Amino acid sequence: MKLLPALVGQVLSPANFLLLALRVGQALSPANLLLIALLLLTPSIPAQTRPTRPPISPREQADLENALSEAGSSPIEYLRAVEKHLQKYPDSPRKEELERAAVRAAAEANDGPRIILYGERVLARQPDDLQILEFVTRSLLAAESKENAERALKYAFHYEELIRQMQKTGGRGSSSGADWQNQTDRGIGRSLAAAAHATGILGRSDEALALAQRAFDTWPCADAAREVARCYERLGKKEEAVRALADAFTIPDPKNTEAERAHDRSHMGELYRQLNGSEAGLGELVLEAYDRTYAVVHTRDLRMRANDPNAQLTDPMEFTLSGPDGRKLSMASLKGKVVVFDFWATWCVPCRAQHPLYEQVKQRYQVDPDVVFLSISTDEDREAVKPFLADANWSDQVYFEDGLSRAMQITTIPTTIVTDKRGRVFSRLNGYVPGRFVDVLSQRILEALRQ
User: Fold this and answer.
1) What residues contact residue 312 under an 8 Å CB cut-off, 6+ apart?
2) Structure pTM?
3) Of the residues 124, 189, 192, 334, which has the fewest C-beta atoms closer than 10 A?
């Protein structure tokens, strides 16, 4: 589902679907599940955007809408509603969508058996679904059984294969080069850690250790270090396990919770006491781990910065943007001016409809040297931008977003942002209302100039 139009001409960026798939444990909320389910059911969606399938009967559609609306905000109730509907209508034309929704509701309800039940049904039809691959893999591993581990290993390796294909073919969307590298490395690291866990359950400890170390090398994080420790412990190498747990405890990792760190600290102390009789000297070992893991993460950050000048930046006015013609723009050169950002993409129909209105606003301020208009492409396929500009006869000087979407928290397009003369976000317009856009944006610019 690449395009999901909203009520005021917004379109979800395709890159956000990848980001959602690569984030750990972030299932869609029941409200969003309900919205998507109803969008899939509504006959107002153009036929060319829907797969060919038998029509749903009015009776079934009414029953489903009533069941989902009564489920409220509870993922458990939502899951029950879907299951009851599938029992009543086992041959429903919407069975595939409902089973997919059941997986996500089960994930939010932390219901492992149902994640596996419905997730494997979805994967049998759509084996490349990244988010469901991860849900199912984690649930299978939680059971710690050899039968489940075999299936989890297959899914983990397929997940890795899909992410590596993405790295080769591009498609980074609204991400800078470093952001895209980090997102995909994180996905590969998680898949390798899952594969290590599965391989360890299957009794192949040396192979599991090699996979865990590859996971940590690919994406240094607490989970990977924890998996390395688990492998060493299986091999009876407690001293190495302590060092790996110290890495998990100290590594800069925003996803590592205090509860997980406390558990790592407790287990590390337990193993250390078994080896040494007390915890004397453990503090020095932890300090060494702190220095070691900081150096690993810092070296990676420096490598990312060498390949992408915008890596790790958070202030939009420090970015350097590139254009389809190779031109570079240092945002620092625009300090002291009001900047109007237009975030769009070639595939975004509302963006094209908004463009003439945006041009009208530009005409109003074309002689004002304190106002700068920037056209920012969020296209995944950057090669499509230059021919699009020629075909559409757009005269804008366009720049790629190069990570700016992250810094300015762009989640839908078109989005128009006005920053004041100090580079602070003064106004944000998500989507547009055709009859009011020109006047509203013009007024926001005027107010920003007065700041």
Assistant:
1) 178, 301, 304, 305
2) 0.68
3) 124
